[in-house]
């Protein structure tokens, strides 16, 4: 059965873009093994799930990859913001010069608009928030005064310091998976963590209940509107080979654009270390990804994959209440360590809940 006209157009868009980006030698209206390999390489570079399939997130990434800075005029469109590599390049250059457009997420939102206007004002071009030829030429002329994303790191660390070490004034969103295979496990762990956090004075929001299952868009909206300090998403993994097992954590990062969530990366590493120090889960490391939940949530967001349901050993661990409690305690300690100053921090696996009050978790 031959593909429909719409499918042919999608394949053509994908292969043309992959060819222009160097992942394929020639474009095609068919999608065979060579094209699948090229798509996998693209997905790997973009921090997507490497499936070789043309799914929704991949199509959005393909569309964003089509644009280079200067290809089109950029401006803020409320309710329907422009997305693309050109926006990411613009944001990166603004950040490098010290203008605060927030996270480099390739989305031209209100904060990017404000940063463009500040830049335009500083270089003496028309202040209208529109990134057209004059603004782009000014960007090209100026030498980067700061490199390596230092302004973002400084701002993130400053915000974390201002909020202080106490958990009693923090807002944390817990996002348990709603997939049939792991919804019960994820929800149980989230509820256990919710109870412990509330007891410590934290304001906690669960992104779903046992009855209601909001879309990912609604979960992201909840996290952003709640003013969250941190978002933690709970999942498990699967693999065709049952020997795959262990714990992995994910935070927002895009190597292509040279950006990542500084706080998200630190928290992912803390969670990874604390859980593997307290359990026998294999350390599958932390990974930078550009999944929508990680990229579009304003607060530092970390996804935790608590083992493989395709592995009998991990399934047994996850079914053990004691194991779940150990995971929860590990995460609590990781949260506190995230906000402790370096001099008050402790070695991985040594800090206990009883120690947290001494470190300023809350006053009696």
TrEMBL record:
<dbReference type="GO" id="GO:0030288">
    <property type="term" value="C:outer membrane-bounded periplasmic space"/>
</dbReference>
<dbReference type="GO" id="GO:0009253">
    <property type="term" value="P:peptidoglycan catabolic process"/>
</dbReference>
<dbReference type="InterPro" id="IPR036365">
    <property type="entry name" value="PGBD-like_sf"/>
</dbReference>
<dbReference type="InterPro" id="IPR002508">
    <property type="entry name" value="MurNAc-LAA_cat"/>
</dbReference>
<keyword id="KW-0378">Hydrolase</keyword>
<dbReference type="GO" id="GO:0008745">
    <property type="term" value="F:N-acetylmuramoyl-L-alanine amidase activity"/>
</dbReference>
<dbReference type="Pfam" id="PF01471">
    <property type="entry name" value="PG_binding_1"/>
</dbReference>
<dbReference type="InterPro" id="IPR002477">
    <property type="entry name" value="Peptidoglycan-bd-like"/>
</dbReference>
<dbReference type="Pfam" id="PF01520">
    <property type="entry name" value="Amidase_3"/>
</dbReference>
<protein>
    <submittedName>
        <fullName>Unannotated protein</fullName>
    </submittedName>
</protein>
<dbReference type="InterPro" id="IPR050695">
    <property type="entry name" value="N-acetylmuramoyl_amidase_3"/>
</dbReference>
<feature type="domain" description="MurNAc-LAA">
    <location>
        <begin position="220"/>
        <end position="336"/>
    </location>
</feature>
<dbReference type="InterPro" id="IPR036366">
    <property type="entry name" value="PGBDSf"/>
</dbReference>
């Amino acid at each position: 059965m031959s593909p429909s006209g719409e499918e042919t157009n999608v394949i053509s868009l994908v292969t043309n873009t992959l060819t222009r980006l160097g992942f394929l030698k020639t474009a095609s209206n068919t999608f065979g093994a060579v094209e699948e390999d090229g798509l996998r390489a693209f997905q790997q570079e973009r921090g997507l799930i490497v499936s070789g399939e043309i799914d929704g997130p991949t199509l959005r990434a393909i569309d964003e990859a089509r644009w280079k800075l200067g290809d089109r005029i950029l401006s803020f469109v409320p309710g329907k913001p422009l997305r693309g590599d050109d926006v990411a390049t613009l944001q990166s250059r603004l950040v490098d010069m010290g203008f605060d457009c927030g996270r480099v997420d390739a989305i031209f939102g209100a904060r990017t608009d404000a940063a463009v206007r500040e830049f335009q004002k500083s270089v003496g071009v028309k202040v209208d928030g529109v990134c057209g030829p004059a603004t782009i030429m000014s960007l090209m002329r100026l030498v980067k005064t700061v490199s390596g994303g230092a302004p973002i790191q400084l701002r993130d660390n400053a915000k974390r310091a201002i909020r202080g070490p106490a958990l009693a004034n923090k807002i944390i969103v817990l996002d348990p998976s709603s997939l049939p295979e792991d919804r019960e496990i994820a929800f149980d762990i989230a509820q256990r963590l919710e109870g412990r956090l509330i007891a410590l004075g934290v304001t906690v929001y669960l992104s779903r209940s046992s009855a209601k299952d909001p879309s990912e868009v609604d979960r992201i909206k909840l996290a952003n509107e709640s003013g969250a300090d941190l978002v933690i998403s709970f999942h498990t993994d699967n693999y065709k080979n049952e020997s795959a097992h262990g714990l992995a954590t994910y935070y927002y990062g895009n190597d292509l654009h040279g950006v990542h969530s500084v706080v998200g990366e630190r928290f992912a590493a803390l969670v990874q270390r604390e859980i593997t120090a307290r359990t026998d889960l294999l350390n599958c490391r932390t990974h930078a990804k550009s999944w929508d939940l990680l990229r579009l949530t304003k607060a530092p967001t970390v996804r935790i994959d608590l083992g493989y349901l395709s592995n009998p050993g991990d399934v047994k661990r996850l079914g053990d209440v004691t194991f779940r409690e150990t995971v929860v305690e590990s995460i609590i300690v990781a949260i506190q360590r995230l906000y402790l100053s370096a001099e008050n921090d402790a070695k991985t696996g040594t800090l206990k809940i009883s120690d947290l009050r001494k470190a300023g978790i809350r006053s009696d």
